[in-house]
Amino acid sequence: MHPANRLKRLPPYLFTVVDEIRERVVKSGVDVVDLSMGSPDQAAPPQAIEELCRAAKEAENQRYSREDGKIEKKLKQTIANWYVERFAVELNPETEILPLIGSKEGIAHLSLTFLNNDDIALVPSPAYPVHFNGVIMAGGILYNVPLKEENDYKPELKKLDKNITRMAKLLFLSYPHNPTATVVDIDFFKEVADWAKGKEIIVGNDLAYSDITFDGYKTPSLLQVKGAKDFSVEFHTLSKTYNMSGWRIGFCVGNANIISALKKTKTYIDFGLFRAIQSAAIKVLSGPQDCVRKTVEVYKKRRDFFVEGLQKIGWKVKKPKATFYIWARIPLKYSALTSMEFTQLLLEEAGVATAPGTGFGEYGEGFIRFALVEDKQRLGIALERIKKLLEIEG
Ligand SMILES: Cc1ncc(COP(=O)(O)O)c(C=O)c1O
């Protein structure tokens, strides 16, 4: 059995490699502190669970979801209201909003919808893997746009080769950024809109972490920039904001033509979302947002504790203004190791699982990412173990 060439072209999924090593270390009796995957550990809002259970019992909800169904229409209207409340951006619920089975699904399908084999997708590197793997699976041309520390991990779009830009059909952006935790202000989006003017490039802005923000920082939307809706869509998810990653629900909003084409692709592939999940999403998106504040407060305490802990050990890292990630350069004395080798060392010698920078693309080399998805006590254990490792080896 030979899988299609497009599967063979995919780079090895380094997170699977990390999982395998972690499994081996756990089997050897080590209680691994797992900071590798961005899988939220906090509870989903109780009102979502209650509504899911209630709606799951209704006969009508056992059937296929239909675009013109009552719940489906209400969900889109709820998303439109949420967008006005959150970003002061007006959206037409019928033409500019598309619910997704998690935002990862929509991001992959955006590439499948728009890329021919002679189309370039501009993908910042490092990035959340589906931004680049989706391009490869769609059979498009992947062009990595480096995100460098000295540019505060922002792409230098104006410096791109004209021939590359001419062939480009898609650009992915995502701030607050996974894995570097960088944030941007609205001026950055104004520059993007200015650059995109006159080019036939679709911008897909992934806002998975729009609400996991600290110290008064508020995430802007690209759609707040005048004219940006002409060429862009934004992706959202309930996975991070509401700790509902296993539920698989997100949405795409923005340009009606892009949404319509993406919808067409999905029509041939899936049947939408379980109605009980849609009903629960309506409940959380339209209800009080205290649950989000609580979630953010927990991450903020972990961030302060963990970053200060690493700094005390002598590992220089910054406190991010958003996400629950810490992007850390491999300490000098281990800098001869690749990020994968260093990840393996941390796992085998210290029992701490992290994500190797190269799992996010070639420009992630030299770094690892901590995901603060274990509680403070466990983070304390991780810090102790890292300290010991750095001391012994030093
Ligand atoms: C930047 C980014 N986008 C999208 C996703 C996927 O989210 P979802 O659960 O909605 O598929 C993630 C998950 O880690 C992410 O980090």
Q: Explain this structure to me?
A:
- The protein is of the alpha/beta class.
- The protein has two domains: 5-43 and 291-393, Aspartate Aminotransferase, domain 1 (Alpha-Beta Complex), CATH 3.90.1150; 46-286, Type I PLP-dependent aspartate aminotransferase-like (Major domain) (Aspartate Aminotransferase, domain 2), CATH 3.40.640.
- 43% of the residues lie in helices and 14% in strands.
- The chain has a seven-stranded mixed beta sheet with strand order 2-8-7-6-5-3-4, with helices on both faces. A three-stranded antiparallel beta sheet has the order 9-12-11. A two-stranded parallel sheet has the order 1-10.
- α6 links the parallel β3 and β4 (141-146).
- The protein starts with a helix and ends with a helix.
- Bound molecules: pyridoxal-5'-phosphate.
- Pyridoxal-5'-phosphate binds at residues 38, 102-104, 128, 174, 178, 206, 208, 237, 239, 245, 250.
